[in-house]
């Protein structure tokens, strides 16, 4: 276990200033449009200090907190790290035509050195899954790779959970165990700091942080343990994916189909979903054609469209595809689950469909 250090809450400014001085654009949770999203942070006051989020199925509200001086009282919002590395829409290449030849030009992504502060353990786990898909699978996504390079991640361990969180069930939180450069645990007057990389060690040295006192590790761990113990939602993963394979015809799929709007909210806010489509367009003269990639969703009718029609024409089949892929067939593809327990799909579903509730219902419902 690495050595622990302390940083006073007032010295958070120094960390942010150091990252900017090292030519990193610093992003963190900021209040915007009534919610929390990752935005540029130039000083600690940009963070949602003394604010907390109220979340429930189909409901999100940001309000004043109850703990004086609390910096990271909010859990998460609709936005994750995903769009910073896996662009919602981008041009992949252009084809230029003249009278005698075609010239293909790959479009290079705009790249900045990024540093994130206030990243939750579930989002670190989601980023590791995205890395697995885009960097460590058979083919590498060069655009993702370019954006992902030279990133600094400062995690914040959760000391409270939202009512829709279930990261403890997925073993992805509430305490960050890997994938970070620094991790912070918020105490009353300071943060407990742990390094997770050589970059993290360098930052600690430059900030000249003092070692944490005796008992600080236990006190910090007690806070994250209490967060896990009080988490309101659970997902029993003991027999997944077998359960979903065996229950493909369970009547519960009909029930959820009567409520699902196929709005794609769950896939848009999910930090691991990676479905895309491509669109080709050309100018009026036909001299230039470009191909763009944009996010898509398995909930859209066109996503599974082939000659003759859609493979999954019903809401029932589309929801079943999404949940079965997330919790079952993802294991077959990538050797891991596709769910990190962040609860965003529950909070941001307009009708409050709860993936943990659906799994429990399928488990308890006998197929007809």
Map the helices and strands.
Elements: E1 4-8, H1 12-21, E2 25-32, E3 35-40, E4 51-56, E5 59-64, H2 82-85, E6 89-97, E7 102-106, E8 114-119, H3 121-134, H4 142-148, E9 151-156, H5 167-170, E10 182-186, E11 190-195, H6 198-207, E12 210-211, H7 216-229, H8 242-246, H9 252-259, H10 265-269, E13 276-282, E14 288-295, E15 305-306, E16 309-310, H11 315-334, H12 344-347, H13 355-364
Parallel strand pairs: 2-8, 8-9, 9-10
Antiparallel strand pairs: 1-11, 1-12, 2-3, 4-5, 6-7, 6-14, 10-11, 13-14, 15-16
Description:
The chain has 368 residues and is α+β, with helices and mostly antiparallel strands. The protein folds into two domains: 4-88 and 96-229, no CATH class; 242-364, no CATH class. The protein has 13 helices and 16 strands. The protein has helices at 12-21, 82-85, 121-134, 142-148, 167-170, 198-207, 216-229, 242-246, 252-259, 265-269, 315-334, 344-347, 355-364, and strands spanning 4-8, 25-32, 35-40, 51-56, 59-64, 89-97, 102-106, 114-119, 151-156, 182-186, 190-195, 210-211, 276-282, 288-295, 305-306, 309-310. The strands form four sheets. It has an eight-stranded mixed sheet with strand order 3-2-8-9-10-11-1-12, sandwiched between helices. It has a four-stranded antiparallel sheet with strand order 7-6-14-13, with no helix packed on it. A hairpin with a 2-residue loop joins strand 15 and strand 16 (309-310). Helix 9 packs across helix 11. The chain is globular and about 70 Å long. The N and C termini lie far apart (52 Å). The model has no long low-confidence stretch (mean pLDDT 93).
């Amino acid at each position: 276990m690495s050595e622990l250090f302390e940083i006073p809450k007032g010295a958070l400014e120094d960390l942010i200033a150091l990252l900017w001085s090292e030519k990193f654009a610093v992003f963190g949770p900021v209040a915007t449009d009534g919610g929390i999203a990752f935005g540029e942070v130039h000083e600690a006051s940009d963070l949602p200090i003394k604010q907390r989020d109220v979340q429930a199925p189909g409901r999100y509200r940001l309000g004043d907190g109850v703990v004086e001086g609390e910096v990271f009282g909010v859990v998460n919002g609709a936005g994750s790290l995903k769009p910073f590395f896996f662009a919602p829409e981008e041009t992949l290449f252009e084809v230029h035509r003249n009278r005698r030849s075609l010239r293909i030009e790959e479009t290079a992504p705009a790249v900045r050195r990024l540093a994130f502060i206030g990243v939750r353990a579930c989002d670190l786990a989601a980023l590791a899954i995205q890395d697995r898909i885009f960097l460590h699978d058979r083919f590498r996504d060069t655009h993702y790779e370019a954006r992902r390079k030279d990133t600094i991640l400062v995690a914040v361990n959760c000391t409270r959970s939202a009512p829709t969180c279930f990261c403890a069930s997925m073993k992805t939180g509430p305490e960050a165990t890997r994938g970070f450069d620094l991790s912070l645990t918020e105490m009353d007057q300071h943060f407990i700091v742990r390094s997770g990389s050589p970059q993290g060690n360098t930052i600690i040295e430059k900030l000249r942080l003092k070692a944490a006192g005796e008992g600080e590790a236990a006190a910090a761990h007690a806070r994250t343990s209490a967060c896990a113990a009080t988490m309101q939602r659970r997902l029993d993963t003991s027999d997944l994916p077998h359960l979903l394979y065996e229950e493909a015809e369970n009547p519960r799929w009909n029930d959820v189909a009567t409520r699902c709007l196929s709005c794609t909210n769950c896939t848009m806010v999910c930090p691991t979903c990676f479905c895309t489509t491509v669109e080709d367009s050309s100018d009026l003269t036909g001299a230039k054609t470009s191909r763009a990639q944009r996010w898509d969703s398995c909930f859209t009718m066109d996503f599974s469209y082939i000659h003759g029609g859609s493979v999954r024409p019903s809401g029932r089949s589309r929801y079943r595809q999404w949940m079965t892929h997330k919790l079952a067939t993802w294991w077959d593809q990538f050797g891991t689950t596709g769910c990190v327990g962040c609860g965003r799909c529950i909070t941001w579903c307009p009708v409050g469909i709860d993936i943990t509730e659906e799994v429990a219902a399928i488990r308890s419902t006998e197929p007809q």
